[in-house]
Amino acid sequence: MAENDNSQEKTEQPTPKKLREAKQKGQIPRSKELNSMSVMVIGAAGLLLLGHYIIASLSQMMIAGFDISRAELVDQAALVSRFGDAIWAALSGIFPFLALMTVVAIFTPLMLGGWAFSVEQIAFKPNRLDPVAGLKRIFSAKGLMELVKALAKFFVVSVMAAFFLWSQAEEFLNLGREPFLQGLGHAAWLFGYSFLVMSLSLMLIAAIDVPFQLWDHSQKLKMTLQEVRDEMKETEGKPEVKSKVRALQQEMAQRRMMEDVPSADVIITNPTHFAVALKYDPDNMAVPVVVAMGKDLIALKIREIASANGVEIFEAPPLARTLFAHSKLGQEIPAQLYFAVAQVLAFVFQLRQAKEQGLDIPERPDPYVPSEEEF
Questions:
Q1: What is the pairing mode between strands 223-224 and 312-315?
Q2: Fewest 10 Å CB contacts: which of 49, 70, 205, 318?
Q3: C-alpha span between 214 and 218 (Å, rounded)
Q4: Does residue 278 sit in helix, strand or coil?
């Protein structure tokens, strides 16, 4: 019972398959604080770097807009041309800043969780209109966390703003003593600088929120022990299915192996328990190759096929057992058995020649088999 209870607790880390399915559904870690911090900081830095260019472009647009002759005022085509020039001047002035903000807004979320598009996340769901469910989300642990983050942002930004205004109070007060244009430029610089400083304070909130979002995402995707077992069964297949597949694979392998027995040069047997079929082509092979092997019923089947196809059967129990123990199907025989197999093949080839030419039957060899310690 205790083991069953433990299997229902979500104590296991999400598997790669679970993570892939969650990403397909759009369930990936996201930090609003990271996004807002990046937009604010880079936006403030962009204003400081591109501010002069933007102001110059807008000033040129304003000057060109007020510098219109009487003839142009009554000419519709000239007004349309002037209007187009004004729009182009405005867009060319703010385009670098807008492009920078677009890049930041698109690529900042990719820093946490990567790219994911899911239709399921944007699909209409009636339960989202349920006021009771909405209240539950507001007063949930996540809603409380959002409230804490909002208060923390307010506190951190307020403290940073108060400190900055206190440290720069003299410069702000001196703005009234400066000439108009100089004071206007100085005020714009102070505005951008203060905006950047207060935006940098959000880095503290983002540094706390990002690890929390990663941890929260991992907690939501945690699995029970039973879910992990079910996934393994689904991925790897049920034991009975796997057993059936293995049996079919073995059957097919044996069928292919039996088809190679007629091409063998010799079958070395135990004589009844083991059978190893060897093939050797001096023109194409450096070493004899095992084309079939088996024991008991499979060995019997190999001998039957060999007898039906006129393949020589050579009884050598020690050699048959050693070949079966140290050889692999479709591969060359072990180097330690070269001499013993060479004796057998030489006898088989001489016996074949003697039968064809009516010569005396050669003397049957007793192949030497190395001890197990030599392998």
A1: unpaired
A2: 70
A3: 6
A4: strand
Whole-prediction pTM: 0.48
Check residue 296 and report its DSSP letter: T
Checking phi first, is residue 296 left (phi over 0); if not, alpha (psi -120 to 50) or beta? left
Nearest-angstrom CA–CA distance, 261 and 329: 12
User: Left, alpha or beta for 26 (phi > 0: left; psi -120 to 50: alpha)?
Assistant: left
Can you read off the two tokens belonging to residue 278? 């060897």
CA 6 to chain centre: 30
Q: Are 360 and 334 in contact (CB under 8 A)?
A: no
**DSSP designation for 83:** H
Residue 61 in contact with residue 89, Cβ under 8 Å?
Answer: yes
Beta partners for 224? 10
Q: Give pLDDT tens digits for 206-243.
A: 888 888 888 888 888 888 888 877 777 766 556 666 67
The vertex-354 CA angle with 348 and 356, nearest 5°, equals: 105
99 — phi, psi (to 5°)? -65, -40
Question: Residue 367 corresponds to which tokens in the numbers above?
Answer: 């192949």
